[in-house]
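Listing S7. Sequence submitted for prediction.
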Amino acid sequence: MTHLNRRLMLAGAAATIPGLALGQAAKPQLGTPLSVITSPARDFGPNAPPPGSPDPDIIRTDPSFGGLLIGQETIRRVSTGYHFLEGPAWSSVGLYAIFSDVKNDTLYRYLWETGQVSVMRRPSFSTNGNSFDFQGRQLSTQDYFRRVVRWELDGSMSIVADSYDGKPLNSPNDLCPHRDGSVWFTDPQFGGNLAEGHPDDGDGPTNPGGLRDPRIGHSGVGLIGGMHQVLPANVYRVDPGGRVDLVLPFEQGLGPNGLCFSPDYSKLYIIRAGRIHVGDVSGGKLSNVREFTDCMVDGIRCGADGMRADRAGNIWASASGPLGYCGVTVWNPAGKLMGRIRLPEGCANVCFGGPKRDHLFMTATQSLYLLRLNIQGAAPG
Protein backbone atom coordinates (compact mmCIF):
# COMPACT_ATOMS: atom_id res chain seq x y z
CA MET A 1 0.00 0.00 0.00
CA THR A 2 1.31 3.38 -1.00
CA HIS A 3 1.16 6.03 1.65
CA LEU A 4 0.34 9.47 0.20
CA ASN A 5 2.11 12.44 1.62
CA ARG A 6 -0.36 15.22 2.58
CA ARG A 7 1.86 17.91 1.06
CA LEU A 8 2.04 15.99 -2.22
CA MET A 9 -1.72 15.64 -2.32
CA LEU A 10 -2.17 19.40 -1.87
CA ALA A 11 0.40 20.13 -4.51
CA GLY A 12 -1.35 17.82 -6.97
CA ALA A 13 -4.70 19.44 -6.31
CA ALA A 14 -3.20 22.87 -6.83
CA ALA A 15 -1.84 21.80 -10.20
CA THR A 16 -5.39 21.22 -11.44
CA ILE A 17 -6.53 24.77 -10.49
CA PRO A 18 -5.43 27.55 -12.85
CA GLY A 19 -3.17 30.01 -11.11
CA LEU A 20 -2.46 27.80 -8.11
CA ALA A 21 0.16 25.66 -9.84
CA LEU A 22 2.62 28.53 -9.56
CA GLY A 23 1.72 29.24 -5.97
CA GLN A 24 -0.72 32.06 -6.79
CA ALA A 25 -4.06 32.63 -5.04
CA ALA A 26 -7.23 32.26 -7.10
CA LYS A 27 -8.58 35.57 -8.35
CA PRO A 28 -12.05 36.45 -7.03
CA GLN A 29 -14.87 36.61 -9.54
CA LEU A 30 -15.82 40.28 -9.59
CA GLY A 31 -19.20 41.42 -10.88
CA THR A 32 -20.19 44.65 -12.54
CA PRO A 33 -23.09 46.44 -10.86
CA LEU A 34 -25.99 47.35 -13.10
CA SER A 35 -26.29 51.00 -14.03
CA VAL A 36 -28.34 53.12 -16.42
CA ILE A 37 -25.90 52.26 -19.23
CA THR A 38 -25.40 48.53 -18.70
CA SER A 39 -27.24 45.85 -20.61
CA PRO A 40 -29.54 44.91 -19.00
CA ALA A 41 -30.02 48.32 -17.44
CA ARG A 42 -30.42 48.94 -13.75
CA ASP A 43 -33.92 48.42 -12.39
CA PHE A 44 -35.26 51.33 -10.29
CA GLY A 45 -38.47 49.51 -9.39
CA PRO A 46 -39.62 49.07 -5.77
CA ASN A 47 -38.62 45.39 -5.69
CA ALA A 48 -35.28 45.81 -7.41
CA PRO A 49 -32.13 44.73 -5.54
CA PRO A 50 -29.87 47.57 -4.34
CA PRO A 51 -27.12 48.48 -6.82
CA GLY A 52 -24.32 48.26 -4.27
CA SER A 53 -22.09 50.93 -2.79
CA PRO A 54 -20.84 53.23 -4.08
CA ASP A 55 -23.77 53.80 -6.43
CA PRO A 56 -22.51 53.17 -10.00
CA ASP A 57 -24.63 56.06 -11.31
CA ILE A 58 -23.03 58.66 -9.05
CA ILE A 59 -19.95 59.79 -10.95
CA ARG A 60 -17.12 61.61 -9.18
CA THR A 61 -15.26 63.82 -11.62
CA ASP A 62 -13.41 65.69 -8.86
CA PRO A 63 -12.28 64.32 -5.47
CA SER A 64 -14.13 67.15 -3.70
CA PHE A 65 -17.46 65.64 -4.77
CA GLY A 66 -16.89 62.77 -2.35
CA GLY A 67 -17.32 65.10 0.61
CA LEU A 68 -20.88 65.86 -0.52
CA LEU A 69 -21.89 62.19 -0.64
CA ILE A 70 -22.73 59.41 1.80
CA GLY A 71 -21.08 56.25 0.53
CA GLN A 72 -23.82 53.76 1.27
CA GLU A 73 -26.67 55.96 0.01
CA THR A 74 -28.04 55.18 -3.45
CA ILE A 75 -30.44 56.82 -5.88
CA ARG A 76 -34.04 55.83 -5.28
CA ARG A 77 -37.03 56.21 -7.56
CA VAL A 78 -39.86 57.02 -5.17
CA SER A 79 -42.73 57.56 -7.62
CA THR A 80 -43.35 57.18 -11.35
CA GLY A 81 -46.03 57.18 -14.06
CA TYR A 82 -46.32 60.91 -14.78
CA HIS A 83 -46.31 62.95 -18.00
CA PHE A 84 -43.68 65.67 -17.48
CA LEU A 85 -42.43 66.53 -13.99
CA GLU A 86 -41.15 69.96 -12.95
CA GLY A 87 -40.91 72.39 -10.09
CA PRO A 88 -39.96 70.45 -6.94
CA ALA A 89 -40.02 72.51 -3.73
CA TRP A 90 -39.81 71.67 -0.04
CA SER A 91 -42.03 72.85 2.82
CA SER A 92 -39.90 72.76 5.96
CA VAL A 93 -42.94 73.44 8.15
CA GLY A 94 -45.24 70.88 6.53
CA LEU A 95 -42.50 68.30 5.92
CA TYR A 96 -43.63 67.62 2.37
CA ALA A 97 -42.34 68.21 -1.13
CA ILE A 98 -44.49 69.47 -3.97
CA PHE A 99 -43.89 68.92 -7.66
CA SER A 100 -45.73 69.68 -10.88
CA ASP A 101 -46.92 67.39 -13.64
CA VAL A 102 -47.22 70.30 -16.05
CA LYS A 103 -48.72 68.42 -18.99
CA ASN A 104 -51.19 66.60 -16.74
CA ASP A 105 -52.32 69.89 -15.13
CA THR A 106 -51.70 68.56 -11.62
CA LEU A 107 -49.71 69.61 -8.57
CA TYR A 108 -48.62 66.70 -6.33
CA ARG A 109 -47.44 66.42 -2.74
CA TYR A 110 -44.92 63.90 -1.36
CA LEU A 111 -45.42 63.30 2.39
CA TRP A 112 -42.13 62.77 4.19
CA GLU A 113 -43.48 60.58 7.00
CA THR A 114 -45.02 57.95 4.72
CA GLY A 115 -43.53 58.50 1.27
CA GLN A 116 -47.08 58.74 -0.05
CA VAL A 117 -47.80 60.87 -3.12
CA SER A 118 -51.21 62.50 -3.44
CA VAL A 119 -52.88 65.10 -5.62
CA MET A 120 -52.60 68.54 -4.05
CA ARG A 121 -54.31 70.68 -6.72
CA ARG A 122 -56.09 69.63 -9.89
CA PRO A 123 -56.46 71.54 -12.08
CA SER A 124 -53.24 73.33 -11.25
CA PHE A 125 -53.65 75.60 -14.29
CA SER A 126 -50.41 74.14 -15.62
CA THR A 127 -48.38 75.05 -12.55
CA ASN A 128 -44.70 74.77 -13.44
CA GLY A 129 -42.10 76.25 -11.07
CA ASN A 130 -42.58 76.21 -7.28
CA SER A 131 -40.85 77.47 -4.18
CA PHE A 132 -41.55 78.47 -0.58
CA ASP A 133 -40.66 81.93 0.68
CA PHE A 134 -39.13 82.91 4.01
CA GLN A 135 -42.59 82.97 5.61
CA GLY A 136 -43.35 79.42 4.45
CA ARG A 137 -45.83 80.51 1.78
CA GLN A 138 -46.02 78.58 -1.49
CA LEU A 139 -44.98 80.44 -4.64
CA SER A 140 -45.91 79.02 -8.05
CA THR A 141 -45.91 79.91 -11.71
CA GLN A 142 -49.05 79.07 -13.67
CA ASP A 143 -48.48 78.59 -17.39
CA TYR A 144 -52.19 78.64 -18.21
CA PHE A 145 -52.81 82.04 -16.62
CA ARG A 146 -49.31 83.28 -17.46
CA ARG A 147 -48.71 84.56 -13.95
CA VAL A 148 -46.90 84.12 -10.62
CA VAL A 149 -49.06 83.41 -7.56
CA ARG A 150 -48.61 83.04 -3.82
CA TRP A 151 -50.71 80.92 -1.48
CA GLU A 152 -51.20 82.83 1.75
CA LEU A 153 -51.16 81.26 5.21
CA ASP A 154 -54.95 81.66 5.52
CA GLY A 155 -55.49 79.62 2.33
CA SER A 156 -56.20 82.51 0.00
CA MET A 157 -54.26 83.10 -3.20
CA SER A 158 -52.59 86.34 -4.27
CA ILE A 159 -51.33 87.29 -7.71
CA VAL A 160 -47.67 88.25 -7.44
CA ALA A 161 -47.28 89.24 -11.11
CA ASP A 162 -49.28 88.80 -14.31
CA SER A 163 -48.05 91.72 -16.42
CA TYR A 164 -45.19 94.12 -16.99
CA ASP A 165 -45.58 97.67 -18.24
CA GLY A 166 -49.28 97.01 -18.81
CA LYS A 167 -48.62 93.98 -21.04
CA PRO A 168 -49.37 90.32 -20.20
CA LEU A 169 -46.49 88.03 -19.33
CA ASN A 170 -45.55 85.13 -21.63
CA SER A 171 -45.57 82.14 -19.24
CA PRO A 172 -43.51 82.53 -16.05
CA ASN A 173 -41.47 79.37 -15.71
CA ASP A 174 -39.28 79.34 -12.59
CA LEU A 175 -38.89 81.56 -9.57
CA CYS A 176 -36.91 82.07 -6.39
CA PRO A 177 -37.53 84.24 -3.33
CA HIS A 178 -34.89 86.66 -2.05
CA ARG A 179 -34.42 87.21 1.67
CA ASP A 180 -35.32 90.90 1.18
CA GLY A 181 -38.90 89.81 0.44
CA SER A 182 -38.71 90.11 -3.34
CA VAL A 183 -39.49 87.35 -5.85
CA TRP A 184 -37.42 86.86 -9.01
CA PHE A 185 -38.75 84.91 -11.98
CA THR A 186 -38.08 84.04 -15.61
CA ASP A 187 -40.67 84.57 -18.35
CA PRO A 188 -39.96 82.40 -21.43
CA GLN A 189 -42.61 81.17 -23.90
CA PHE A 190 -42.62 77.46 -23.04
CA GLY A 191 -46.14 77.53 -21.57
CA GLY A 192 -47.73 79.06 -24.63
CA ASN A 193 -48.82 75.74 -26.12
CA LEU A 194 -51.65 73.25 -25.79
CA ALA A 195 -49.79 70.71 -23.66
CA GLU A 196 -48.36 73.05 -21.05
CA GLY A 197 -50.57 76.10 -20.85
CA HIS A 198 -52.48 78.65 -22.88
CA PRO A 199 -51.71 79.23 -26.57
CA ASP A 200 -52.26 82.68 -28.00
CA ASP A 201 -55.92 83.37 -28.76
CA GLY A 202 -55.99 83.53 -32.53
CA ASP A 203 -52.93 84.13 -34.66
CA GLY A 204 -49.86 84.86 -32.55
CA PRO A 205 -46.21 83.97 -31.98
CA THR A 206 -47.06 80.74 -30.13
CA ASN A 207 -50.09 79.94 -32.30
CA PRO A 208 -49.25 80.63 -35.95
CA GLY A 209 -52.41 80.95 -37.98
CA GLY A 210 -54.57 80.51 -34.88
CA LEU A 211 -54.82 76.74 -35.46
CA ARG A 212 -54.99 75.87 -31.76
CA ASP A 213 -58.11 76.81 -29.81
CA PRO A 214 -57.29 77.33 -26.10
CA ARG A 215 -61.00 77.20 -25.19
CA ILE A 216 -61.34 73.49 -25.98
CA GLY A 217 -61.19 71.14 -23.01
CA HIS A 218 -59.97 73.46 -20.25
CA SER A 219 -61.87 74.42 -17.11
CA GLY A 220 -60.25 77.85 -16.99
CA VAL A 221 -62.05 79.13 -20.09
CA GLY A 222 -63.52 82.55 -19.47
CA LEU A 223 -61.35 83.33 -16.45
CA ILE A 224 -58.93 85.26 -18.60
CA GLY A 225 -59.35 87.30 -21.72
CA GLY A 226 -57.59 86.94 -25.02
CA MET A 227 -53.81 86.86 -24.80
CA HIS A 228 -51.05 87.38 -27.31
CA GLN A 229 -47.37 87.17 -26.61
CA VAL A 230 -46.05 90.73 -26.83
CA LEU A 231 -43.13 90.82 -24.39
CA PRO A 232 -39.64 89.42 -24.92
CA ALA A 233 -38.51 86.55 -22.70
CA ASN A 234 -37.13 88.61 -19.82
CA VAL A 235 -36.18 88.06 -16.19
CA TYR A 236 -38.09 90.10 -13.58
CA ARG A 237 -38.03 91.05 -9.91
CA VAL A 238 -41.16 91.75 -7.89
CA ASP A 239 -40.39 93.95 -4.88
CA PRO A 240 -42.21 93.45 -1.55
CA GLY A 241 -44.65 96.20 -2.51
CA GLY A 242 -45.65 94.44 -5.74
CA ARG A 243 -43.75 96.54 -8.29
CA VAL A 244 -42.43 94.45 -11.20
CA ASP A 245 -38.99 95.47 -12.47
CA LEU A 246 -37.04 94.18 -15.45
CA VAL A 247 -33.67 92.89 -14.22
CA LEU A 248 -32.35 91.02 -17.27
CA PRO A 249 -33.60 91.81 -20.78
CA PHE A 250 -33.89 89.06 -23.36
CA GLU A 251 -30.89 88.43 -25.58
CA GLN A 252 -31.33 86.59 -28.86
CA GLY A 253 -30.55 82.91 -28.46
CA LEU A 254 -30.44 83.15 -24.66
CA GLY A 255 -33.99 82.48 -23.51
CA PRO A 256 -34.17 82.20 -19.69
CA ASN A 257 -35.31 79.17 -17.74
CA GLY A 258 -34.37 78.08 -14.20
CA LEU A 259 -32.76 80.36 -11.62
CA CYS A 260 -31.49 80.36 -8.04
CA PHE A 261 -29.50 82.52 -5.64
CA SER A 262 -26.12 81.87 -4.08
CA PRO A 263 -26.23 81.11 -0.33
CA ASP A 264 -25.45 84.74 0.59
CA TYR A 265 -27.90 86.11 -2.03
CA SER A 266 -25.17 88.19 -3.64
CA LYS A 267 -25.36 86.28 -6.93
CA LEU A 268 -28.18 85.11 -9.17
CA TYR A 269 -27.66 82.05 -11.35
CA ILE A 270 -29.81 81.91 -14.50
CA ILE A 271 -30.11 79.09 -17.02
CA ARG A 272 -30.15 80.57 -20.51
CA ALA A 273 -30.43 78.28 -23.54
CA GLY A 274 -29.25 75.31 -21.47
CA ARG A 275 -26.13 77.07 -20.17
CA ILE A 276 -25.73 78.59 -16.72
CA HIS A 277 -24.98 82.29 -16.35
CA VAL A 278 -24.37 84.25 -13.14
CA GLY A 279 -24.77 87.90 -12.23
CA ASP A 280 -24.11 90.09 -9.21
CA VAL A 281 -27.08 91.20 -7.09
CA SER A 282 -27.08 94.53 -5.28
CA GLY A 283 -29.88 96.89 -4.36
CA GLY A 284 -32.47 94.84 -6.22
CA LYS A 285 -30.51 95.06 -9.47
CA LEU A 286 -28.50 92.56 -11.50
CA SER A 287 -25.15 93.38 -13.10
CA ASN A 288 -22.06 91.81 -14.64
CA VAL A 289 -23.90 88.82 -16.09
CA ARG A 290 -21.44 86.28 -17.46
CA GLU A 291 -21.30 82.60 -18.35
CA PHE A 292 -20.76 80.29 -15.39
CA THR A 293 -20.61 77.02 -17.35
CA ASP A 294 -21.60 75.85 -20.81
CA CYS A 295 -22.77 72.54 -19.25
CA MET A 296 -20.55 70.54 -21.60
CA VAL A 297 -19.36 67.21 -20.20
CA ASP A 298 -17.01 64.98 -22.20
CA GLY A 299 -17.93 66.99 -25.28
CA ILE A 300 -21.66 66.35 -24.72
CA ARG A 301 -24.10 69.12 -23.87
CA CYS A 302 -25.92 68.35 -20.63
CA GLY A 303 -28.40 71.18 -21.05
CA ALA A 304 -29.73 72.53 -17.76
CA ASP A 305 -33.36 73.42 -17.00
CA GLY A 306 -33.62 73.99 -13.22
CA MET A 307 -31.15 74.16 -10.32
CA ARG A 308 -30.51 74.81 -6.64
CA ALA A 309 -27.47 75.88 -4.59
CA ASP A 310 -26.19 74.06 -1.53
CA ARG A 311 -24.83 75.76 1.59
CA ALA A 312 -21.27 75.57 0.24
CA GLY A 313 -22.28 77.45 -2.91
CA ASN A 314 -22.17 74.45 -5.25
CA ILE A 315 -24.79 74.40 -8.02
CA TRP A 316 -26.87 71.27 -8.55
CA ALA A 317 -28.37 71.51 -12.03
CA SER A 318 -30.74 69.23 -13.92
CA ALA A 319 -29.32 67.78 -17.12
CA SER A 320 -30.79 66.67 -20.40
CA GLY A 321 -28.83 64.77 -23.00
CA PRO A 322 -28.34 61.19 -24.13
CA LEU A 323 -28.59 58.23 -21.78
CA GLY A 324 -25.51 58.23 -19.59
CA TYR A 325 -25.42 62.03 -19.38
CA CYS A 326 -28.98 62.97 -18.47
CA GLY A 327 -29.68 63.46 -14.77
CA VAL A 328 -27.89 66.04 -12.59
CA THR A 329 -24.58 67.87 -12.86
CA VAL A 330 -22.84 69.48 -9.87
CA TRP A 331 -20.56 72.52 -10.22
CA ASN A 332 -18.40 74.21 -7.60
CA PRO A 333 -18.56 78.01 -7.12
CA ALA A 334 -15.77 78.44 -9.65
CA GLY A 335 -17.79 76.65 -12.35
CA LYS A 336 -15.78 73.41 -12.27
CA LEU A 337 -17.62 70.11 -12.67
CA MET A 338 -17.50 68.11 -9.44
CA GLY A 339 -19.72 65.17 -10.26
CA ARG A 340 -22.80 63.79 -11.94
CA ILE A 341 -25.89 61.80 -11.03
CA ARG A 342 -27.01 59.59 -13.91
CA LEU A 343 -30.73 58.94 -14.28
CA PRO A 344 -32.55 56.82 -16.86
CA GLU A 345 -34.61 59.88 -17.85
CA GLY A 346 -33.93 63.52 -18.61
CA CYS A 347 -34.21 65.66 -15.48
CA ALA A 348 -36.01 69.02 -15.45
CA ASN A 349 -35.42 70.34 -11.94
CA VAL A 350 -34.17 69.64 -8.42
CA CYS A 351 -34.63 70.83 -4.85
CA PHE A 352 -33.26 70.00 -1.41
CA GLY A 353 -35.68 68.55 1.14
CA GLY A 354 -36.13 66.30 4.12
CA PRO A 355 -36.21 67.43 7.78
CA LYS A 356 -32.51 68.30 7.60
CA ARG A 357 -32.77 69.53 3.98
CA ASP A 358 -30.08 67.01 3.04
CA HIS A 359 -32.01 65.02 0.42
CA LEU A 360 -32.00 65.90 -3.26
CA PHE A 361 -35.38 65.59 -4.98
CA MET A 362 -35.04 65.16 -8.76
CA THR A 363 -38.01 65.57 -11.08
CA ALA A 364 -37.23 63.55 -14.20
CA THR A 365 -39.57 63.14 -17.14
CA GLN A 366 -41.94 60.55 -15.71
CA SER A 367 -40.47 59.90 -12.27
CA LEU A 368 -39.43 61.42 -8.95
CA TYR A 369 -36.00 60.39 -7.63
CA LEU A 370 -34.35 60.95 -4.25
CA LEU A 371 -30.77 60.86 -2.96
CA ARG A 372 -29.50 61.58 0.56
CA LEU A 373 -26.39 63.79 0.69
CA ASN A 374 -23.75 65.05 3.09
CA ILE A 375 -24.66 68.69 2.40
CA GLN A 376 -27.77 70.81 2.87
CA GLY A 377 -29.62 73.06 0.49
CA ALA A 378 -29.16 76.80 0.86
CA ALA A 379 -32.64 78.07 0.01
CA PRO A 380 -35.62 77.59 2.35
CA GLY A 381 -37.71 75.84 -0.30
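Caption to Listing S7: primary sequence and predicted C-alpha coordinates for the chain studied. Residues 6-15 form the longest helix (10 residues). The chain has one domain: 54-372.
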